[in-house]
Amino acid sequence: SYGKMWGISGTAVRSIRPYQSSEQYLYAMKEDLAEWLKELYDLDINVDTFMEVLETGAVLCSHANNVTHVAGEFAHTCPDIARHLRLPTTGVTCNLTAQPGTFQARDNVSNFIQWCRKEMDIKDVLMFETEDLVLRKNEKNFVLCLLELARRAARFGMRAPTLVQMEEEIEEELRQELDLPPADTSLPRPPRKPRDLQNLDQMVQHLVSRCTCPVQFPMIKISEGKYRVGDSDTLIFVRILREHVMVRVGGGWDTLEHYLDKHDPCRCTS
């Protein structure tokens, strides 16, 4: 009956999920990372089995070793760019047969965490602890760490998840606006599937239209995928990721729904 409430089509109703908007961006990120790992390693993984498939640490350690291998090849073929990047030089030892919840699984995950810190220089605020994954104590930090690792590895030629590719597009757009030269480390990238932007504005307006303020919370389209919001001069970049409308916020992402829940006066009830 959401459909009756909003007068929207069946597809939109199906995408209204039974979780709070604050968990939505995590779901969207997990979905993106799962699809990326599936393509990268031909894994049987999806958003619902994401934590299960990764909790033994075997995939994580194999990924760390693959990233280290790609970095080595990059240092060999592009020594000039490589000099400016901190590249990982050693991989991790890994027990590929570790069972979930065992000491071996914790050992794998712990080795991966040490490698992220030492070899990839990932800062503590984006790191997770072994129990965050093994006992599901903190999915958010685990997901943010994987995304940050993907971001850094993309700099030396590792294939990146869609979210990271979108970040690069947005950064490039900002550089062009400011007349800055392209990023010196930009590598030739395989072209991304064409962006679904014609559908984007409709989805944005649909989400904004749920506003019940006497004067509707403004979200004005400046150019494709770029909007001015609220009474400020804040500009935000918006992209579609599967059925989620994502907003680039600071160094990260949010869903537009959650973003509006936090900024639209009639929705910030908490």
From TrEMBL:
Primary location class: cytoplasm
Annotated Calponin-homology (CH) domain residues: 27-154
- Asked if the record carries the keyword RNA-binding, the reply is no
Q: Enumerate the subcellular locations listed in this protein's record, separating them with semicolons.
A: Cytoplasm, Cytoskeleton
What the entry lists under InterPro entries is as follows:
CH_dom, CH_dom_sf, GAR_dom, GAR_dom_sf
Provide the alphabetized UniProt keywords: Cytoplasm, Cytoskeleton
Q: Name one GO cellular component term.
A: microtubule plus-end
Query: Which Gene3D superfamilies does UniProt cross-reference here?
Result: Calponin-like domain, Gas2-like domain
Q: Does the keyword Cytoplasm apply?
A: yes
**Where are the residues of the annotated region Disordered?**
174-196
| Occurrences of domain GAR (ranges) | 195-267
| Family membership | Belongs to the GAS2 family.
Recorded protein name is GAS2-like 2
